[in-house]
Hints:
Layout: H1 2-7, E1 8-9, E2 12-13, H2 16-22, H3 25-58, E3 59-60, H4 64-76, H5 79-90, H6 105-128, H7 133-141, H8 146-174, H9 178-184, H10 191-200, H11 205-239, E4 247-248, H12 253-280, H13 292-295, H14 310-339, H15 346-364, H16 367-377, H17 394-417, H18 420-428, H19 433-462, H20 465-470, H21 478-487, H22 491-519
Amino acid sequence: xxxxxxxxxxxALDLTxxxxxxxxxxxxRLVGLTLAQSFLGTGFALVAGLPVAxxxxxxxxxxxxxxxxxxxxxxxxxxxxVGVAFRSLFVPDGALGFLGLEETLGGIVVALVFxxxxxxxxxxxGLWERLDPRTEQAAAALGASPGRVWWTVTLPSLAPxxxxxxxxxxxxxxxxxxVVMVLGGARYGTVETEIWVRTTQFLDLRSAAVLSILQLVxxxxxxxxxxxxxxxxxxALHLVSDRTSAVPLRRSRGDVAAVAATAAVVxxxxxxxxxxxxxxxxxxxxxxxGLANYAALGTTGERGALTVTVWEALGNSLRTAAWACAIALxxxxxxxxxxxxxxxxxxxxxxxxxxxxxxxxxxxxxAVTVGFGFLVTLDQPLGVEYDLRTSPALVPIAQAVxxxxxxxxxxxxxxxxxxxxxxxxxxxxxAGPWAVLRTVDLxxxxxSLGLAVGFAFAVSLGEFGATSFLVRPQSETxxxxxxxxxxxxxxxxxxxxxxxxxVLAALTAVVMMLAExxxxxxxxxxx
Length: 527
């Protein structure tokens, strides 16, 4: 429907919308800014993530599991919380105010690196952990220096994982919404934020549809690259040992450098913004330290800034996330189960690949585009005489659409790794298809399902892009309320936004820590 809105007007092909949008200098400026933040965010995420991946997946030391969980938390933090955390650092009186990063491209890139670091660490580290160390040892024994071993042996072996991680990070950077809205201010915008502005402020649905189509072209290209590199990475994983190659941490020059780089990345990029956010949340409107901001969460803010209290919004978020998680788990689990099968026919294999790619689209397509698509199409879905846009079920459905790819990508590699002979043996012994699913697939995939539940619930809890289009005033979720508080004048409203962000960040972190603990060292998944 979005594509049709861009190409068709009054039932006939009409490209004037494209000519109008593409003829605006503002459009190309937004496209340039979007690509700039995407390339910069991807490059710096790779540079920052490599030493962390080496330390967490090639070395063993006490507390490694806790550090892995800490590095994962930013990936599932709500984008609004990330924006608020870095904004509290970049404001003139913030800890990094002297850098002048408020409402700049540099500030947004730093926040995007924070958000996507875990993608690089987990994707690259998962392959690095199982590389056979004897290849590197043989190169060193033949006289290669550590630098040459890295360039000629290690880096080529990691190439599939690096390109796969880069393509996914590029997608997330290109479609970032909450971070840009909070940190960009009036001086900075992207294609993503322009879609939201054109829809909500100008009701210019035609221009928004054209911009969404342009974004879809970029997303489809990046997803195609991601799919090819993902298959190569899975093939590379089949060629390496199933056992970890991690060894105890040593006092060598390389290990010391990795520890120093990891400390700088984790301390400066993760702990500093989160710690700064937590500390500033205790500074009341009068400048004194205390719990005034948290006490105000039971109100609607200064001058009635909100229609619901923050605690009511948190309740709305929890209920919505629970429904969205249930939907995403059922749909994503079924897609993963079907995509894990390897039919013999060429046509059937292509159909399975097409289905997998179709359900992967929301991973790259912006949540704003998803919300926009729901807004313009679900007045009478499939001819049913019912306007779904008035239903309270619309927000959980939209959040589930965003969460389904994460469930699929978490469960699918585990299902694909199951030896098909196990199913054949069970079938030979008389087990029907449902019995095979219950006794073979589900037990082996159970831990990855636990991680998938954590991902789906955390992502739904902090979803902002699609929800900002669809939510009603009396059922606003916590991310929407935080954004409204930031946009309202008054020190009390800003203090409430900080306190609410801490509450949401803490809840998200607890969910992911529990999911990681449930998974243990089993399970797989792309992230």
